Amino acid sequence: MMDWVLSLIITISLALPFTGRCSHVYTRSDFPEDFAFGSGTSAYQWEGAATEDGRKPSIWDTFVNSRNLENGDIACDGYHKYKEDVQLMVETGLDAFKLSISWSRLIPNGRGPVNPKGLQFYKSFIQELVTHGIEPHVTLHHYDLPQALQDDYGGWLNRTIIEDFTAYADVCFREFGSHVKFWTTINEANIFTIGSYNDGITGPGRCSGNCMSGNSSTEPYIVGHNLLLAHASASRLYRQKYKDMHGGSVALSLYAIGFSPATSSKDDEMAAQRARDFYLGWMLEPLVYGDYPYVMRKTVGSRLPNFSEEESELVKGSSDFIGIIHYLAASVTNTKPNPTGYSDFYSDTGITLSYTCNITTSQCAVTPWALEGVLEYIKQSYGNPPVYILENGKSMKGDFQMQQKDTPRIEYLHVYIGAVLNAVRNGSDTRGYFIWSFMDVYELLGGYGPKYGLYYVNFSDTHLTRFPKLSAHWYSAFLKGDTTFLGSQGIAQLQNNFSSSSLVM
Ligand SMILES: *[C@@H]1O[C@H](CO)[C@@H](O)[C@H](O)[C@H]1NC(C)=O
Ligand SMILES: *[C@@H]1O[C@H](CO)[C@@H](O)[C@H](O)[C@H]1NC(C)=O
Ligand SMILES: *[C@@H]1O[C@H](CO)[C@@H](O)[C@H](O)[C@H]1NC(C)=O
Ligand SMILES: *[C@@H]1O[C@H](CO)[C@@H](O)[C@H](O)[C@H]1NC(C)=O
Ligand SMILES: *[C@@H]1O[C@H](CO)[C@@H](O)[C@H](O)[C@H]1NC(C)=O
Ligand SMILES: *[C@@H]1O[C@H](CO)[C@@H](O)[C@H](O)[C@H]1NC(C)=O
Ligand SMILES: *[C@@H]1O[C@H](CO)[C@@H](O)[C@H](O)[C@H]1NC(C)=O
User: Fold this and answer.
1) pLDDT tens digit sequence for 306-347
2) Which of 21, 88, 360, 437 is most buried by a 10 A CB count?
3) What CATH number is associated with residue 282?
4) Pocket residues for ligand 2 (CB within 6 Å)?
């Protein structure tokens, strides 16, 4: 997760009063038996060891180091502490874990030779998960394209990336595929594209205006197109070469905001639909139906690349499930066409978004119905594909005491998991839910400020000691079918049981 939205908030609204429908009392056994509950981290945010054992920089290393921002050089030192962390996952009772592979650790130049030490690390880590009965969900690209490919030919802007990404995926499928059944090619592909090529707030930091280079009118659409083709090409390779043997699945993950019209006017209702088409349909429509949404083709015109017939066939049906990353709700107001004639992704949408977040505290309103709405929308508009919610969670700032007694996080998780259950009961083919993040990590935009973890990490301590927060105890009890701590009385009891003394589970 990145707090990208805070830098582009247009208006701030007060937290919505908490009025949503939600399942108040439920237990794990209310979910289908094979529903997967997990948690996750990503390579750069957790591994550290940024220059160790042959790893070379990714565009994220370059982005933060050239701007003197906090970095993940050490992060949680997961590279060295992975066994300890898998042990914590086991104690928590996770079914599954979302990790990502650092492309430039495995193949330092992006193409060419594999780094044996990088290979060994991921083999050992994945083996450790599988040995302990935890299903790995592996992402291939989490904001961290090898810098070498950016330098060689402009990275995602150049169609050469399709071939190189497919070759990288081939190495991963071949080396790890006997243990990995769930692959995600590109993490939140839509927001990576907007952040990196429209806003310039994520690596490689390109945009019109305040960036050193870039073009927000054209580049987001070119990059989005190449991402879809690279994903689809990797997915085809998997089906041709590995699927019979390994039986796994390959997906794209998308960031899904819960949009609702600001008023009941026809204009705002159409604006909310445009928001869904531009933010989600942009990539989901090609994956399901083989082309961009009509409203995008009409508005963006010749700046939106066309799919050839062959490409359309390649992309259509290439995502075996849809990975969903969800944090936010926004209300949508229609805006008048921009008279200056300047176009970027936002002006193309013709909308104004108002997020329910407080920019001072970076706290967002708890809106579980937004997640339920996203799952309903995907069910009803895209033929009910299988969905895994690969990230959802709550950031909190504060000291150790606050972090340890993270009751607001528990309340958040409780109602969001309830929202998922509502959607599943109403027919959504949602098959898993992953809390971001398993432990406090380096956050892509907020660095070591915002914390999402179930486990606290003492970043001042050279040992980077981990402690379970109250939310880790809560999730663990839920996963183990213990109903003691459910509901508000249960949370009070949880506070009593784990308040001062026990730092270990
Ligand atoms: C944001 O949070 C601060 C600190 O709690 C509070 O003073 C302020 O009123 C909040 N703003 C809004 C718009 O809710
Ligand atoms: C893409 O990269 C190739 C080298 O791999 C280069 O020849 C070509 O000019 C690049 N195309 C664009 C549009 O930058
Ligand atoms: C962006 O690219 C378009 C199309 O090539 C061009 O017309 C426009 O001038 C470019 N904008 C900037 C800021 O370079
Ligand atoms: C895509 O095809 C449409 C219709 O054939 C055409 O009008 C448009 O200019 C094409 N766009 C590009 C980027 O080639
Ligand atoms: C449940 O699903 C039906 C059929 O897709 C739909 O019409 C209805 O609105 C859904 N209910 C909720 C609460 O989303
Ligand atoms: C974190 O580590 C520092 C340095 O070792 C130590 O002084 C501090 O007490 C630790 N904090 C907690 C909450 O354990
Ligand atoms: C929590 O505390 C209560 C009362 O002290 C006790 O009965 C219960 O067994 C404890 N539960 C756990 C899981 O520690």
Assistant:
1) 999 999 999 999 999 999 999 999 999 999 777 777 899 999
2) 437
3) 3.20.20.80
4) 153-154, 158, 160
